[in-house]
Amino acid sequence: MTSYQKSIHHYSNFKVLEDKGTFGSPFTQRAKTTKKKTEPPTLKKKIYCVTGTAPAPCKDFFELVVHVDEVIFRKWRVKFNKNGKSGVPSEDRMNHERFLDSDVVQGEIERNLGGDALHMAVGHITQDWLPRLPIKALTNITSYLELSDISRLHQVCSVFNKRLQQDEIWNDLLSLHFEIIVDENLRAKNPRKSLKWIYRQELIKMKENEIDWDNI
């Protein structure tokens, strides 16, 4: 048998075994063992995200992400060790209930990202927006209210009570209603007095000037 005939004989035997399924070529095996396509991981729905650096002189970077089922608070500490490398970024993951109960986490967010960022995050979770409006919007609302109405607003909830104690609101109200700029001289004239107290005294003076004492 010539070499050509031997090659034809081996090829015919190979085809018979392949057709019977007892032997398969690499091409048929590859077709039989097709891999299942892996689906990409589903991304969680992000409903609020804010990033920023801590107040000077600190250079730490923070990120707050609110998902539909959890809150992620990431921290990048700019602190170099002996080898000249900064620390590894860290993150805190928690569900909504734990986040709302954690005064430590909320306090860290307020110190580093600001009160408005914290109120926005809590507002997205609780859908209780009115007490958590940005400070400028809350100042705009209170500018239309009498002092007695603002006093009643204090009693609505603890969030309103806390936010209406902030000097930033009364600073804007003093500037809006009485054109008073809060500076060191004003602070020196009224030591240990809050801007709310100064606003109330200016309001009393204004009311007294509106009374025509000569016709009483």
Automatic annotation (TrEMBL):
Pfam families (UniProt xref): F-box-like
InterPro entries, alphabetized = F-box-like_dom_sf (IPR036047), F-box_dom (IPR001810)
Q: Which organism is it from?
A: Clytia hemisphaerica
| Gene3D superfamilies from the UniProt entry | 1.20.1280.50
Protein name, entry field: F-box domain-containing protein
Limits of the F-box domain: 127-173
UniProt cross-references to SUPFAM superfamilies, sorted A to Z: F-box domain
PROSITE patterns for the chain? FBOX (PS50181)
